[in-house]
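Summary for the steering committee. One of the milestones for this cycle was to obtain a three-dimensional model of the protein with adenosine monophosphate bound, which we needed before selecting residues for the alanine scan. The sequence and ligand used are listed below.
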Amino acid sequence: MPFVALGLVADLARAVAAQGYTAPTPIQSQAIPMILAGRDLLAAAQTGTGKTAAFTLPLLQRLQIHEGRVLPAGRPRALVLTPTRELAAQIADSVRVYGRHVAPRTALLVGGVSMGPQFDALRRRVDVLVATPGRLLDHLSQKTVSLAGVEILVLDEADRMLDLGFLPAIRRLLALVPKRRQTLLFSATFADPIRQLA
Ligand code: AMP
């Protein structure tokens, strides 16, 4: 089944074809139509299954980004939380690659690097914010970013975030995003702490 049959618009399907993907992976076939329909999602998927495209593609479609739209600076419409800066960088790259014909504004907030360029990124419109939980909380305490406009929240590799001790941070972040939103949770395992979080 091709990507357009899952409901993806041509701009996104073209970007996927340019990557050389001929058919969706199983997680993509299952997740993309549900996310496009606005449903919340709990998905069991490990790295290597194509899960990044499974949430990035429909997320970009739902945001219906257009350049002319005026949005306040530093107020992302989609937030992707992920455990490590390497994963965050990969996701931000995927947003740019899959969104090449949609032109999303992406910001990457991760620890271990200086905050200066991150402040600069937040002084502009941000469609998709990709972050690790600790650094995002640092920015929130400095009021350089607001989560009040988040429409779609993605918790990527949720089990690893919990393993790394991010549960308190995630709970604080969950209190700052609007209650009315779409939530997508990806995890390789579904032990009790993940079920409770879900
Ligand atoms: P991920 O599980 O998101 O880390 O993706 C693993 C790898 O699979 C990445 O290098 C993607 O570029 C690649 N990939 C994602 N979707 C597809 C697809 N439908 N066909 C072929 N490769 C894909």
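Key point for the committee: Residues 21, 24-25, 28, 47-53 surround adenosine monophosphate (CB under 6 Å).
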